[in-house]
Amino acid sequence: MNENKPILSIETSESLCGACVYFNDEKFFEASIRFKNIHAEKLFETIDYVIKTAGIETNDVGAIAVSAGPGSFTGLRIGMSAAKGIAFGLSLPIIPVPTFEALALQIAAHLPDKTEFIIANKVNMEEVYYAKFKTVSNLLDRSNNYIFAENLKIINLSELDILSKDCMIFGNVNVFKNEIDKEIKLNLHSGGIKLTAPSPVFVARWADLFGSDLAMTNYDYLEPNYLKNFIIKERKNV
Length: 238
Known about the structure:
2 domains, five-stranded mixed sheet, 30% helix, 6 helices, 9 strands, Nucleotidyltransferase, domain 5
């Protein structure tokens, strides 16, 4: 990974389809579209837009950072396939970015030190992806980062209320526990839209902060972190 070149980041883990050309915290170019099932149609258009807006060529990029899950099976595959295609063509390393950790980085920037919070996104009607975090100031000389309080796993939806006691919950199953909680979340949510996936700039920031040891050029077998096997249900003829 060339530290003198920008990172191109891709986010497709949920309904957000976005990309970012990231030089540093003060200089980045980001674009995203929020619309269901738009990733295959609009991702490369969005990537092309941010590259042109940044005033660079694709061969000026130093690495590809891609949101690696958990999340939508289809969205993750589209993002990973796009990252591999671009990286292969330019001989660039790929940095697989844990989606919930990039989202935690984004959320933690708005919370006080030593605040615990949960990210929970639906897997299906009965299960959710779950991880608990705690903010830590000045981690790696960057204020308001986080540590894991409880690692990523799948839990039953009925367990969430017990595990989330006295914690804010972010994601597409979140609830407001009190007025302070509600005020913080509404400030983080854009136009009332729930914060279920990181913005592309935070995918890039996570890669910049923590991804140097994850960068890989042998990515033939690189796969998203689905966390749950994809099961195709057979339709029975009546």
